[in-house]
Amino acid sequence: QVQLVESGGGLVQPGDSLKLSCDASGNSFSLDALGWYRQAPGKERELVASISFGRKTNYADSVRGRFAISKDIDKNTIYLQMNSLKPEDTAVYYCVAAAIVTTEGPQFAFWGQGTQVTVSS
């Protein structure tokens, strides 16, 4: 089993930066991909970024160029560096992990509890 715990969310102003972290425990060494989803009220759940075991990264168009996902294998932690934050980035951000990757991409089966990010002036 895999446990994911997010932290680092909070209230920031537009244009600010924020760095989220996700601590993975359990059988995390077997994961093929990790990522960040976000869910905002009234909006579709969105995979904002992912990183594979081979460190290949993918970003949603809405965050590309502003967000950066990274991982620290030694610490069993992944990060989401969020720059130039906009009000529309406001959402609950979930750390996700996949043990299986299909032709459609990682199948994220493990989810953290989420951390709230609010961007408001």
Kindly list the characteristics that best describe this protein:
7-stranded mixed sheet; 11 strands; mainly beta
Could you explain the architecture of this structure?
The protein is mostly beta strands and 121 residues long. The chain is 0% helix and 59% strand. The protein contains no helices and 11 strands. It has strands at 2-7, 10-12, 18-26, 33-39, 46-52, 57-59, 67-72, 77-82, 91-102, 105-111, 115-119. The strands form 2 sheets. Strands 2, 4, 5, 6, 9, 10 and 11 form a 7-stranded mixed sheet that branches. The chain has a 4-stranded antiparallel sheet with strand order 1-3-8-7, with no helix packed on it. Strand 7 (67-72) and strand 8 form a beta hairpin. The relative contact order is 0.31. The model has no long low-confidence stretch (mean pLDDT 93).
Give a brief rundown of this model.
The protein is mainly β and 121 residues long. The chain is built from no helices and eleven strands.
Query: Which structural class best describes the helix and strand composition?
Result: mainly beta
Helix and strand element order? EEEEEEEEEEE
Separation of the first and last Cα atoms: 40 Å
Count of runs of 4 or more consecutive helical residues: 0
Helicity range of the residues?
under 10%
Uncertain ranges:
none
Tell me what portion of residues adopts beta-strand conformation: over 45%
Q: Mind telling me the C-alpha Rg? A: 13 Å
Number of strands: 11
The main pleated sheet reads as: 7 strands, mixed
**Average pLDDT for all residues:** 93
How would you describe the shape? globular
